[in-house]
Structure prediction request, 67 residues.
Amino acid sequence: MNYQCQHCGQFIMGKAYRVTSEEAGVRLLDMTVCYYCFVDAQRLGLHTEEILARESPATARYQQSFT
Ligand SMILES: [Zn+2]
Prediction:
């Protein structure tokens, strides 16, 4: 799974993180970010979560046969 950080523009090689910010039920922010921006976001007190790779064995097999 390849992600690009929506904050600094770097391609994310390892784990990707999601930064969200909500106020009174309104989503103000929803970004996929790299580790460094994730740490920054945490420092700013934003809501952060790790994005888990959703690669099922079936998907992996499909990709292999078509590359
Ligand atoms: Zn970043």
